[in-house]
Amino acid sequence: MTSTSPRDPSVADSLREYGQGVAGGLLFSLPLLYTMEVWWTGFVAIASPWRLLLALGATFLMLLLYNRYAGLRHDATFREVVIDSVEEMGLGIVLASSVLWMLGRLQPDMSVREVLGTISIQASLAAIGVSVGTAQLGQSVQETNHGESALGQISIAACGAVIVAGNVAPTDEIVQIGIELPPLNLLVIVLFSLLLASSVLFGVRFRDQRRMVKTKESPPRLFDVTTTYATALTVAAAFLWFFGRFERVAPSVMLAQTVVLGLPAVLGASAGRFLIQ
Amino acid sequence: VKKNVLEWVVFGVSALLIASLVGVLVMELVTSRREPPRVIVRLGKAVRVADHYRVSILARNEGDQTVEGVVVEATMTPSVGQPETAHFEIDFLPRRSEREGWVTFTGDPGRAKELKVRAIGYERP
User: Fold this and answer.
1) How much is the ipTM here?
2) Which of B15, B26, B28 sits opposite A113 (nearest CB)?
């Protein structure tokens, strides 16, 4: 648990930590486990196993980065970070499969492929939830700013974006809004997203100053806002690509969808830095 | 790395789960061919239910692409009288998977002159 005691963590401690992980995993992925489009993506996505592998790989990378920069043990070695990430991924798989089974989404007449497709997508999202849940529902003892480095900030922003945008990314509404919106509205969305990021990040800075956490003299505010929005847009585009929303559509529709999904993503990305961190 | 027995067990099980998931996906990747969807329907037994007959139909996608909105139609031509048609729709029929559905007729398909079934249409999801 906390790095203060040199002896092995007790079973009760680890059980509590897993409990927090499970709660976090459910908190962040239950809406998706209840979403039809996500089950269907499982059927469709299995047609391209490399896409699923890529999603699993990206998830694992995010777990590594998150555990490194925002995890419970800020003094963790690389080996510990890897072990934690493997455990979280495993918990995600177990959690996603059990809930899907409980909801009757895994039927005996489904082929192994379908089951795997459905589980891998949900497990990835659940694993991120487990990771964030373990760190956030756990005792927040460290007042230290883990994510000082740019990579740390971006990892935390990406995790926040995945959690918030993930809940709407697979829905048909994103496509519909993307197709219907005129360019002016898209521009307004972009401006609103930037404004949102600025105000939330300003909040983070204000809080850090009140806590008298060391902050740099002249903060690169513009840099923070642009990197956060860029991270959000990247996460949004990755989600849309993964859910097959970029197939057989014009580039302008891809862009429109990315901007539309970029709004919840930037909310998650900047709030992630506020809440998760 | 300090871990108790429980944590090592969780780690072991997790590693095993991930390895098998990735393993199966890699196998899928290696073995998957790019065959277009091919929906094959097979008639099952006719069962009498109250005032009608129920026939089970098994639809199987032999291709490597998932199809959506598969409409399966069955036509029964009795020895005497007009042919009867019945249909049902399958939301998703993933690759190399099957789904079961039923059609009903008022006449007895067991004594029909002809009972034909086929998937009349489906789309790419």
Assistant:
1) 0.73
2) B28
pTM: 0.79
Cβ of B9 under 8 Å from any chain A Cβ? Answer: no
- The nearest alpha carbon in chain A to B13 belongs to A90
* DSSP of chain A: --TT--SPPPHHHHHHHHHHHHHHHHHHHHHHHT-HHHHHHHHHHTT-HHHHHHHHHHHHHHHHHHHHHTSS-TT--HHHHHHHHHHHHHHHHHHHHHHHHHTT-S-TTS-HHHHHHHHHHHHHHHHHHHHHHHHHHS-----S-GGGSHHHHHHHHHHHHHHHHHTTTTSHHHHHHHHH--HHHHHHHHHHHHHHHHHHHHHHHHHHHHTT----SS--HHHHHHHHHHHHHHHHHHHHHHTTTTTT--HHHHHHHHHHHHHHHHHHHHHIIIII-
pLDDT tens-digit map of A115-124: 888 888 889 9
Q: Using the beta-carbon criterion (under 8 Å), do B25 and A8 form an inter-chain contact?
A: no
